[in-house]
Amino acid sequence: MLSLVDKEAMLQAQLGYVLEPALISEMAQLAKIRETTTDEIIVHVGDRLQLIPIVIEGSIKVSRENENGEELLLYYIEGGDTCAMSLQCCTKKIDSQIKATAMEPSLLLMISAEYMEIWMDQYKSWRTYIISNYHTRMMELMESIDAIAFMNLDQRLLKYLRDQAKLLGSLEILHTHQQVADDLHSSRVVISRLLKQLEIKGEISLHRNKIILKTI
DNA sequence: ACATTAAGTGATT
DNA sequence: AATCACTTAATGT
């Protein structure tokens, strides 16, 4: 179990530049730690959240899911970020409209939505942090919409692989073609064929359960 | 050696 | 670009 001092140090490291010290120590007091494994589902569609996660280490994938279990990747949340949208879901008692999955072993600080609400009035830096988080998420959403609307699947696939590589800091992407197809809401066969084309063009090399990008 | 899962392929819509 | 039906390759037991 992490001590209060540990939590405060981690918060300081990630958010010390944006949040005032008083708030950092208050957060450290209240926060519960959650450690996740790779591919662990943190939020299901329909969940009613009471705690909002702030990502300290690792990264989270946020996706839409329909009633058939078909998915579409929306955006990622990285260290120091939170999903400000879940704040509204919490306080307005709306069921989660998204699914959140850990992309790697991650460390989350879970904080009750009530406090976050109070901090909005109490700390200017918190308000700025939340609004800026909203903005970031919004920009990322637009990027996803652009990709879906204006890019061909082959371009979108390459972008997906590069985003993935950047995020995890490795050119090796440990996914099956099926998993890639799920994220892009396509089918395995189509993805396999497009990947083959990328391999022929020399952009990537293919292996079982692994796709290696030649360059970012 | 056998079963299971991942990936490749041709044909059809 | 998706789906079907089938093959081949890689891996686990």
Protein architecture, described:
- By secondary structure, the chain is an alpha+beta fold.
- The chain folds into 2 domains: 4-148, Jelly Rolls (Sandwich); 152-213, Arc Repressor Mutant, subunit A (Orthogonal Bundle).
- 48% of the residues lie in helices and 24% in strands.
- It has helices spanning 4-15, 21-30, 85-91, 113-122, 124-150, 153-168, 177-184, 188-200, and strands at 32-36, 41-43, 51-57, 59-65, 71-78, 99-102, 106-112, 172-173, 204-207, 210-213.
- The radius of gyration is 19 Å and the shape is elongated.
- 26% of the residues are buried.
- It binds a DNA duplex (13 and 13 nucleotides) through residues 153, 176-178, 186-190, 192-193, 195-196, 206, 208-209.
**Total of DSSP H or I helical runs spanning 4+ residues:** 8
Considering the protein shown, what is the CATH homologous superfamily of the largest domain?
A: Jelly Rolls
Content-based structural category: alpha+beta
Low-confidence stretches: none
SSE sequence, one letter per element:
HHEEEEEHEEHHHEHHEE
**Could you give the distance between the termini?**
38 Å
The CATH class of the largest domain turns out to be Mainly Beta
| Largest beta-sheet characterization | 4 strands, antiparallel
Query: How many β strands by DSSP?
Result: 10
Strand content: 15-25%
Fraction of residues in helices? 40-55%
Shape: elongated
What value does the Rg take, in angstroms?
A: 19 Å
Mean pLDDT: 93
* CATH architecture classification name of the largest domain: Sandwich
Number of domains: 2
